[in-house]
Each structure stands twice: as C-alpha cells, then as structure tokens.
Amino acid sequence: MAWRTLHIGQPSRLSIKHNQLVIQQDEPVVVPLEDVGCIVLDTPQVTLTGAVLSACARHQIALIQSDETHHPAFMGLSFWGHYRQAYILAHQLAATLPFKKQLWQHIVRQKLTNQQLVLQACVKKTTVLPQLIKQVKPGDPENIEARGARLYWATLWDNFRRQDESDIRNALLNYGYAILRASLSRALVGAGLLPALGIHHVSMTNTFNLSDDLIEPFRPMVDHQVYTIVMHGGCETMTLGHRQQLTQILGHKVLFQGEALEIMGAIERTVDGLVRAYQEKNTKHLQLPLWIPQDE
C-alpha cells in the first residue's frame, strides 16, 4: 500500500530511473514509486519528464501543483481505475436516494463525533454536539451538520469565521483539506468509483462531489493540526514549514475498526467499505475513522 506523501518546496527536477522516482535537488533523492501515494509540487521551479506523469498514472499517484500563493490549484489523477470499473460504477449509479440519505446520516454523525473529540482535546470543553448526533436523520434534513459546525468553530476559537479569507487559520485549514481531498480522490478512482457522483454533494460543476462527501469525518484531523500550529507560537503567514506539516497529515493515526491506522490507510479502507456498501446495498459496510490524540 502506498504510504508516503512527498512535499517538494524547492527547485527540483523529477525523473524516472529503474522504475523509481529521482528527485534532483542539491543531492539526488531516490524514492520507490510503489511507496508514494501523493506528490505535492509546492514551487513553480519544478520540471518533470513525461515518464514521471506516466509513472504517476500507472502507480495511482495523485499529483498536486500549488499556485503562486502556495494554495493547491491543480490535481492530476490517473484514468486507470479498478479492473472491474464498469461493474463497480454500475452499482454506484444504482444507489437509490433513500440509501444515499442513510450513508450521509452515517457520515454526518461521525463528523460530529470527531469534532467533539477534537474540542475535548484542544479546549477541554463539552458541547451539545453529542446531543446533536442523536438528532441527525437520513439525509440530514434539519441541517444538523451546519448547526454543529457553527457551534464547533465558536468553541474552538474566539472571533473566528470560516468565510474570512484574510484569516491565516482558514488558509491553513484549506491547505490541509486539499491534501485530504486529493488522497480521497486518488482512492476513489483506484477503487473504480467516479468521484463526480456524490452521496450528498451533487453540484453539476464539481468533479469531486464524492470526495467532498467522504472528507467530512476526516476534516477534524486537519482542524486539530491547524489548532496545534496556531497555539504553539501562532503565525501571521503560511510558511513552508506549515505546509510541510499539513502535507504530512496523511501519516497521522486514527482509529479504524479498533485498529490504529495512518489516515492514508484509513482513507483506502473507507473507500473499500463504500464500494462494498454499494454492492450489497448495506450502509453498515461504510466504516469511518475515529480521531485519536496525536503524539506531539
């Protein structure tokens, strides 16, 4: 299983030699392709060969390019999906609306659960989130997710608005979420699913509706990392060090079916469970991660 996320933040040349990725900087670094799940190109001063692009496609490696402000602006995914892609896609297309509403109920409940765990670890405060979890119905018609989010952010930070683009905390959060989204999209394509066909998100202009569904229980993992960055000295701008920390979020541990797994592994298991849920028309197969405190 691919487990490494590479963050390239200085001028580099990428090439392939003996089926391994060669990163030429001051000294060449050689990385086995089968170990890599995601490559973040966080500088415009990177050149790469066509062989690198072909190798990324063959090994299901997500390729992310940041813009001049260091925000992820491009994501490349392989067209090579699962060997039974048409079969799996048929089950995804056949999912009924009531079934998808049950899946979304499960996702929202787990997101609220993880948000409460993060609050307990960060600010040592209890909220009504556990009570809200019980109120989530299939499809979340009462929008408990949004109500929980307002309470969550107000408890985590004073004077914080998620829509404030000038707030460095939002820049950090968005960067971390982009890393999760890329990893989820990679796993979905690799499992034979179509990321554009969502469970709850159904935007006609969003290529990654399904990624944006499954990311929800994982978001609190990024929230905790950003909280740690801000509380351990604060920050006025997003530095290279901050971006490197957020890129490595996929290596953090979560609890998945009683087992401690890195987030990248939990993402793949989550997607595998969704495939099985579609195939057997049973929501119990969609297993989701539980946040656990990290070793600082």
What does this structure look like?
This protein is α/β, with parallel strands linked by helices and 296 residues long. The chain folds into 2 domains: 4-76, CRISPR-associated endonuclease Cas1, N-terminal domain (Ribosomal Protein L15, Chain: K, domain 2), CATH 3.100.10; 85-291, Four Helix Bundle (Hemerythrin (Met), subunit A) (Up-down Bundle), CATH 1.20.120.920. It contains 10 helices and 11 strands. It has helices at residues 50-58, 85-94, 97-122, 129-135, 144-156, 168-190, 209-214, 219-231, 240-247, 263-280; strands at residues 4-8, 12-17, 20-24, 28-32, 36-41, 46-48, 62-66, 72-76, 253-256, 259-262, 290-291. The strands form 3 sheets. It has a 4-stranded mixed beta sheet, covered by helices on one side. A 4-stranded mixed beta sheet has the order 4-3-2-6. It is globular. 38% of the residues are buried.
Oligomer type: single chain
Helix proportion range: 40-55%
Overall number of strands: 11
Q: Low-confidence runs (pLDDT<50, min 5 residues)? A: none
CATH class of the largest domain: Mainly Alpha
Query: Given the C-alpha coordinates, what overall shape results?
Result: globular
Compressed to H and E, one letter per element, the order equals: EEEEEEHEEHHHHHHHHEEHE
Largest sheet: 4 strands, mixed
Number of separate helices: 10
Mind telling me the CATH superfamily name of the largest domain?
CRISPR-associated endonuclease Cas1, C-terminal domain
Percent strand equals 15-25%
Task: Provide the gyration radius in Å.
Answer: 19 Å
Which class do the helix and strand fractions yield?
alpha/beta
The CATH topology of the largest domain is Four Helix Bundle (Hemerythrin (Met), subunit A)
Structurally, the number of domains stands at: 2
